[in-house]
Design a protein that fits this description.
binds coenzyme A, 7-stranded mixed β-sheet
């Protein structure tokens, strides 16, 4: 699969805002990315097209905020960036010209990760990218010590509901007339305890079958 996940950065805002506008109708309130990216309780992932599948890992690693063994410290990395021969095996500098196909937002509230937004470019849908983003979102939530994921979805959005149901989300309630454009109801969907061994086994099965179907995809979660 020529896609990989990495954390969203400020430099991605223009592209992600376009994807968000394409995904949601007139009643949607645009995400204030500039503010939210600075919040410790918010986390955004983007799915990028790798130039070639073989490069996906290196391209994703360039954005990783997790230091790899042998990586120079960030200040030094900045100094040597672009000086040929000094970079050695270190990841290349991030390339913000990558095309972003989709994104997902999380808001960590105590031990519950609220999925604030998920969207995939129209032309890229039904290629496993929404599922890849959800896989990454669940992994990021586990790392952050969350026990469940929760979200709201339009009652009429059966495609998105099918995706969430596949990952163990169940309807937990309804917000009557939640959407201001057409007063449509929102279904509140939530997972079981994601730290539970039963959920973990299900997650591993889904992750493996996604990789078998779409190919292994690098996931850098920051
Ligand atoms: C919902 C959305 C993110 C799904 O992304 P995607 O990349 O097309 O989804 P995937 O290809 O990864 O599909 C994964 C699963 O989702 C479900 N699914 C996705 N789109 C579907 C559709 N149109 N109809 C039925 N099921 C669908 C299926 O269960 C699918 O699994 P399968 O391939 O085994 O059947 C995408 O349609 C989108 O961006 N929609 C507009 C924005 C939106 O509605 N966001 C959700 C707000 S709550």
């Amino acid at each position: 699969m020529p896609f990989f996940l990495r954390p969203m950065r400020l430099e991605d805002i223009a592209q992600v805002s376009l994807v968000e506008r394409e995904c949601f109708s007139a009643g949607w309130v645009p995400t204030p990315f500039k503010r939210d990216l600075r919040r410790d309780t918010m986390f955004f992932l983007v799915a990028c097209e790798a130039r070639t599948p073989a490069n996906a890992d290196t391209e994703a690693r360039a954005f990783s905020t997790v230091r790899q063994p042998g990586d120079p410290p960030p200040v030094l990395e900045r100094l040597v960036r672009g000086i040929k021969g000094l970079a050695g095996d270190h990841p290349p500098p991030p390339d913000f010209s990558q095309r972003i196909a989709g994104f997902l937002g999380l808001w960590y509230i105590v031990d519950d990760a609220h999925v604030t937004v998920v969207g995939v470019r129209e032309t890229a849908r039904r290629n496993g990218i929404g599922e890849l983003l959800l896989l990454g979102g669940i992994e990021a939530s586990l790392r952050r010590g969350m026990r469940a994921l929760t979200l709201e979805v339009r009652a009429s959005n059966l495609g998105a509901q099918a995706l969430y149901t596949k990952y163990g989300f169940r309807q937990a309630g309804v917000r009557k007339g939640y959407y201001t454009d057409n007063h449509e109801d929102a279904l509140i969907m939530t997972t079981a305890d994601i730290t539970d061994p039963a959920y973990h086994s299900r997650f591993i099965r889904l992750r493996d079958s996604h990789a078998a179907r779409w190919g292994r995809s690098a996931r850098y979660l920051g």
